Amino acid sequence: MDQDQRGLSPQTSKSSSHQNQVSRNKEFQLDFFIQKKFISDDLKSILEETQQKYSIKSIYVNQKNQIPELEGSAFTIDDPGENKMNAKCDAILHILSSLQDRCKQQINIILLIPEGIVSFLIGSKGSQLAKIIEETNAKITVNQPIANYSPRTVKIVGDQSTINCAIKAITKKMQERGISQEDYKKVPEALNPQKVNSKAKLIFPSFVVDYILKNKNEVENKYDVSIKAKESNDIRLTQKCKLKRDDKIVQLQGSLSNVQDALSSLIRRVTEHQKKQELEIKIVMPASYASKLIGAKGGQIRDLATKSKGAQIKVLSDKDETDHDYHCIVQIAGNLQNKQDASKLILQQIECFKNGGPIMDSGKFLNDENHTSQISNNYDEYKIKRFIILPNLFREKSSSISERNSRSRSQSRRKHKHQRKRSIERRSVSSSYSKRRERANVLSTKIIVSNEVMHILEKYHKLSEYKERYNVDIQADDSRRNSESYLRLKGKLKDCLIVIEEILNEQQKILRK
């Protein structure tokens, strides 16, 4: 089975009495993974020194936790003694610090945690993980599970103090719940389309919905699904996805495989009923899935378009990906087969996201942020306005030249009509709109830099140079903590980003030295 066709199965619910009987330990071993490029030749002596310094019973390379197809070593720090968790965390930091001194580059770490505690660590709608990220300023990514590999990988990126704070915060959160043997034994399972219950919501013009409801009995009996109309008030759509006056929502419910087949049948029936009239498929999904469906640099949605052999896919959303209360629309256009294939794939992806996400075949792409299969639960600010995939390379040449020209002319007329309407609306809008736009393009932020970088910026008058060149107000905050300083930036968004990039370049120069 393809990687993107698999996902986590829904968790089986257990009674409260069963959960109370499970024995959970507050003291547990810490497992982590370091890439090969960061490991020095004297690793054995570093582990022995760390073990003696922090009086840890056992620190060793654990071959059982080796991440598939990712070069590096998995380590285990184990000591059943009481109140040893802080010492174990300090031991990890000491190992990282020793390796960083030798390789002269910033090291990131991958924590290995039991699969059974992942949902508790992430929290409802990501609240727990978001809180840890906010408190520690570390970039923390709970990666998707790996096939036939029981621990879940949690990548932590930052400087030494940031990584240390993140490790202690995660460990503290795990201690609150405790870890049982069942947590270690739990293994992610592939999504089973026959067993997963799915509710697919679609938007059609009212006359299409009326046709579907009129002929729904045959489809319901054949595919064992239920079809019913939904009130538009039941779903909160983003501003980009407001329903038209004659739009209605229809819901298909049943097993995922049955819903997929039923939807394909409905698309075929409606297309044949409408004959020459074009029909766009609009699937409703949570706005929080928009960035996941698109993927890094559009790789995920481009892959879906390729697999559906030329479907034109649009994701319309204007909310932040952490907004779980809103829904967005996925539009699908193309010929009959394109729309049927793309609809099946998108419904499958949505169910994967609902049940934990796809399972990766190996861990070799854990540190490749651009790989389409790496769908992370990180909480960076990421807003989507509109994403369009038009894979012309795979578009079938089924329609004649005259039909295409006719369609192009009608589209052009609609476009010009829409532009004229928009132009009239813009002229009627008050001047306050333009003021809001101007305020939206202004960025006021505070960044943290090391004192070493700050010294270079002040010594060579870089801050005044950036201020004059990019017209950005830059102020050094007098309040400094330990080895860090604050800089306040205010100006146009684009100019502020350029200044931040210049400061990062200075930091890279220091690291290279």
UniProtKB/TrEMBL annotation:
Chain spans, region Disordered: 1-23, 400-437
Keyword Repeat: yes
Sequence ranges assigned to domain K Homology in this UniProt record: 105-175, 277-351
GO molecular-function term, one example from the UniProt record: mRNA binding
Compositionally biased spans, kind Basic residues: 410-424
InterPro entries xrefs: KH_dom (IPR004087), KH_dom_type_1 (IPR004088), KH_dom_type_1_sf (IPR036612)
CDD domains referenced in this protein's UniProt entry, alphabetically: KH-I
Keywords in alphabetical order: Repeat, RNA-binding
Gene Ontology CC annotations of this record: cytoplasm; nucleus
PANTHER family registered for this protein in UniProt: KH DOMAIN CONTAINING RNA BINDING PROTEIN (PTHR10288)
Protein name as catalogued: K Homology domain-containing protein
Organism of origin: Paramecium tetraurelia
